[in-house]
Amino acid sequence: MPTNQKDDVCYAQPRTLEQRLAIARDFVKRNDYTIPMLVDRMENTADGLYAGWPERLYVIDEHGRIAYRGALGPSGYKPQELDAWLDAHR
């Protein structure tokens, strides 16, 4: 049985913002996630602007500006690089 089915985290594709928010809330609850999370609207505007596909890491500063932008994944997906950047900017 695939892990998502075993862990009961399979969802139908959300068709409304409320459905999308419910999935995000479930993720936060299941994972005891404490970092603020943003959820894109149904038009996927943020996805289009930030090109998060297939994987990309960002740090948004306290003024809402991009402070760190990782390269596109999978080859540019480098969490260790982000860790080093965060350590240097604390």
Q: Could you characterize what this model shows?
A:
With 90 residues, the protein is mainly alpha-helical. It folds into two domains: 1-39, no CATH class; 41-90, no CATH class. The chain has four helices and two strands; from the N terminus they run H-H-H-E-E-H. It has helices at residues 3-6, 17-31, 45-50, 79-88; strands spanning 58-60, 66-69. It has a two-stranded antiparallel sheet with strand order 1-2. The longest helix has 15 residues, at 17-31. The chain is globular, with a radius of gyration of 15 Å. The mean pLDDT is 88.
Shape: globular
Task: Compute the number of structural domains.
Answer: 2
Order of helices and strands: HHHEEH
Mean pLDDT across the residues is 88
Tell me the β content.
Answer: 5-15%
Strand order of the largest sheet: 1-2
E-strand count: 2
Helix content: 25-40%
Low-confidence stretches: none
> What structural class should be given to the helix and strand makeup?
mainly alpha
Question: How many helices does DSSP assign?
Answer: 4
Quaternary organisation of the protein chains: single chain
Q: Termini, distance in Å?
A: 43 Å
Biggest β-sheet description:
2 strands, antiparallel
CA radius of gyration is: 15 Å
